[in-house]
Design a protein that fits this description.
5-stranded parallel β-sheet; binds 1-deoxynojirimycin
Length: 762
């Protein structure tokens, strides 16, 4: 539910009434202060000059280690509402002191930082966290991050990043929660709750930012910052839902995207920020630009100069400018010229002040790190370990080669550039991540089984991009002399993240050749892949016996991976994004539309099957690629286990329901294996006929359940007809009467299906 702060329009009459009580000294709430946040916002605004209001809309980079004099002066003059990138608590406290004690109105600062998947203790990259399908662990990870970050005075993070992304070339897919609106929405809410807690005035909570509004994940060819074109219907059905969910969960801020959306860059896009965010969703928090993205409106070619960019961004609804300073330079003139009404500025500043009140900064602007739990404490490390454990996805396990048995092995070869790379396993966006805390897989395997297994290690390549194969003979030799090979492959952290897109998403460098050489040794080969994105593994998949995809697993990646390899725990992660066979299939995602010519196994003639002597003029005439077919290498929500899960007896609680009803879809799940393990049970639906065409499947529910060997449980999902709504041709949400299919299972390709129908109420 929404947190209930309604939007404010500053009326002169109300201001007049409240002015009497407004003095700068009255800003701090006395203990028995009964005023609401809205009253305090109105009172404060009434006392502010235009320059002070614009100051609140200005966020300044404060990354310099020593505090520049001009920054202190600007804060004192009320020209700065927020700083970012300062993480020395003494410096932050001093800047807060200047704001609170030396500026005329004593308004505290928002202190921002990219705390994306951990602070010192690093959780798996967000895409890895999404592979846990576990809101509880995602929430716990964000809470750990918030508490650690708060020790430095940070009170606002630029996370979660909830751009739906269906393009693994895009480097920022690592920061995302994957391809699916439902999964991303559930996890977005968990992250917001983890950062913000129940009450933002509590120590160790920080404000969250849902970013980047909107569509950034659909940049052309996955090239970061590139153009985005998304029809409104798809925006509403695919890209908006995680933002709507975050807004409903009370997220304090949203960040506008860098990208151009349908010809209007997001930072200047009124449809996004005024029509949808404010008017439709009643968002009462504030919107921050991305780094200098206001001035970039001119570089995009939307405006001719910075002043016009300020006009577009402000009228579009960007309340605060990050790093660019152009609001400070031009906004006053725009108001003086009558082009921007001061009431608009008031409402925007109110959005920012409201956040400062919600955070309790007026009462408590300073940070005492000792009042917070110590960094990297046992709980933090255990949360990181559990998240890494649940995020790894077992993609292949021929003949049950995994788990390895420490009792049966005499020796194991640990080979590859990512087996012992403490920094690389942390992934992208770890400004503050402490590599000293990392436990690498190599070290963890040693500690777990080193006492009775001879663990040998060879890096074999300087890094994943290396083309020097001089160590490959030695690697093959080591493989030949060992009972099994653990090959740690993938990408370093630098290969994903902002501005780190790739056009080729094969394993970089000569890694595929390393696999080939190791394969020749004839020993079981287990590939463990650490990466920031899905990779096209087509050229190695048949040359290894098992693949464990571990993403960039964070601080505790090593112990988690070791436990999975040696069967202390069963893998339980499921892919939050589809893995293509080859890059030309992109975008490929499970919830595609059916098309007028849907492909099927009978219609597919692949390029190698075209008769060389009598070429067929027409192949299957359906929607597939001659050289790739139409299926991915690994589908969305796929992931193997050491247990064997069997789904049976799906049923719907009714054949027919009416609008407003809830239907229960259930199935029986049995663990037929001989180990206890978690399974992620998923519910999908298809709306067979729609006012706009509907995807072939849509995720509508999931549950992570632990089952003992032999245990059977009935899994229920309750679906309200509102859960089946989508934006129709007129862009309004609608649930249409008609036929639905529902599936329950362990991946997006489950075949266990039932049907039901929504009938008209009359
Ligand atoms: C640019 C990125 O797009 C955004 O996600 C980030 O929060 C800001 N820079 C601040 O570092």
């Amino acid at each position: 539910m929404r947190s209930g702060y309604s939007r404010i329009l500053v009326s002169a009459a109300l201001l007049g009434l409240l002015l009497v009580t407004t003095m700068s000294s009255s800003i701090a709430n006395p203990p028995n202060d009964q005023r609401t946040i809205e009253q305090r916002v109105v009172e404060l605004l009434a006392d502010m000059t235009l320059a002070e209001k614009i100051g609140q809309m200005n966020q300044v980079n404060a990354s310099d280690e020593d505090m520049p004099h001009h920054l202190q002066e600007a804060i004192k003059a009320g020209r700065v509402g927020s700083i970012l990138n300062q993480v020395n608590v003494d410096t932050v406290n001093e800047l807060q002191r200047i704001a609170v004690e030396e500026s005329r109105l004593g308004i505290p600062l928002l202190v921002g930082r990219d705390v994306i998947h951990g602070f010192k203790t690093v959780m798996p990259i967000p895409l890895g966290q999404a592979a846990t399908w576990n809101p509880d662990i995602v929430r716990a990870g964000a809470q750990v991050a918030a508490r650690e970050a708060a020790t430095t005075g940070i009170n606002w993070t630029f996370a979660p990043m909830i751009d739906i992304s269906r393009d693994p070339r895009w480097g920022r897919i690592a920061e995302s929660l994957g391809e699916d609106p439902y999964l991303a929405s559930e996890l977005a809410v968990a992250m917001v709750e983890g950062f913000q807690g129940d009450d933002l005035t509590d120590a160790g909570t920080i404000a969250a930012t849902a970013k980047h509004f909107a569509g950034y994940g659909a940049s052309e060819s996955g090239r970061d910052y590139a153009t985005v074109n998304i029809p409104e219907n798809e925006l509403r059905n695919v890209y908006f839902p995680p933002f709507k969910a975050a807004v409903d969960a009370g997220v304090v801020s949203l960040m506008a995207a860098f990208s151009d959306l349908d010809g209007v860059p997001a930072t200047g896009n009124r449809f996004l920020m005024r029509d949808v965010l404010r008017d439709e969703w009643n968002f009462s928090g504030f919107v921050v630009s991305d780094w200098d993205s206001v001035r970039q409106l001119a570089i995009h070619g939307l405006t001719a100069n910075d002043k016009e960019s300020v006009y577009e961004a402000v009228t579009a609804g960007v309340d605060m400018e990050m790093a660019g300073q152009s609001y400070v330079d031009h906004l006053e003139a725009l108001v003086d010229e009558g082009r921007i009404d001061v009431a608009m500025i008031d409402a925007m500043v109110a959005n920012i002040l409201r956040a400062k009140f919600r955070l309790g900064l007026f009462e408590n602007p300073y940070t005492d790190p000792k009042a917070l739990p110590p960094i990297a404490n046992e709980h933090a490390l255990e949360t990181a370990r559990k998240a890494a454990l649940q995020s790894a996805v077992l993609l292949k396990n021929d003949h049950g080669v995994l788990p390895l048995s420490a009792k049966k092995l005499n020796s194991v070869a640990v080979i590859g550039p990512l087996a012992d790379a403490p920094y690389e396993q942390l992934g992208t966006w770890i400004f503050d991540g402490d590599r000293e805390l990392s436990i690498t897989p190599m070290h963890a395997i040693h500690s777990l089984v080193g006492h009775n297994v001879d663990v040998r290690y060879l890096r074999a390549m300087d890094n994943s991009r290396s083309r020097a194969s001089k160590a490959f003979d030695e690697a093959a030799e080591m493989a030949r002399g060992s009972d099994a090979v653990l090959l740690f492959l993938g990408e370093e952290s630098i290969l994903s993240g902002e501005a780190h897109s790739r056009a080729d998403i094969n394993l970089p460098g000569d890694q595929a050749e390393l696999v080939r050489r190791i394969r020749e040794a004839g020993k079981p080969v287990i590939a463990v892949i650490l990466a920031g994105r899905p990779l096209t593994l087509t050229n190695i998949v048949d040359r290894v016996d098992a693949i464990l995809f571990a993403w960039h697993p964070g601080t505790m990646g090593g112990p988690a991976i070791a436990d999975l390899l040696f069967g202390i725990e069963s893998p339980s992660g499921k892919l939050p994004v589809t893995f293509p066979r080859m890059v030309g299939q992109i975008p490929i995602y499970y919830s595609q539309k059916r098309t007028g010519k849907p492909p099927s196994p009978d219609t597919v003639v692949l390029i190698d099957d075209i008769d060389a002597h009598a070429p067929q003029l027409s192949t299957g005439m359906t929607a597939y690629h001659l050289d790739a077919g139409y299926t991915p290498l690994f589908p969305f929500a796929y992931g193997l286990s050491y247990a064997e899960f069997d789904y049976q007896r799906i049923r719907a609680s009714a054949r027919e329901i009416r609008p407003g009803d809830t239907i229960r879809i259930s199935a029986e799940l049995t663990n037929k294996g001989d180990v206890a393990a978690d399974e992620i049970v998923q519910l999908y639906i298809r709306d067979l006929v729609g006012n706009v065409t509907r995807p072939v499947r849509e995720l509508k529910g999931f549950k992570r359940l632990r089952l003992e060997p032999g245990q059977t449980v009935t899994v229920d999902f309750d679906l309200h007809t509102d859960d089946l709504a989508f934006a129709g041709r007129d862009m309004q949400l609608m649930t249409e009467p008609g036929e639905f299919h529902a599936w329950i299972g362990g991946s997006s390709e489950t075949e266990l299906r039932t049907e039901f129908r929504i009938i008209d109420s009359d």
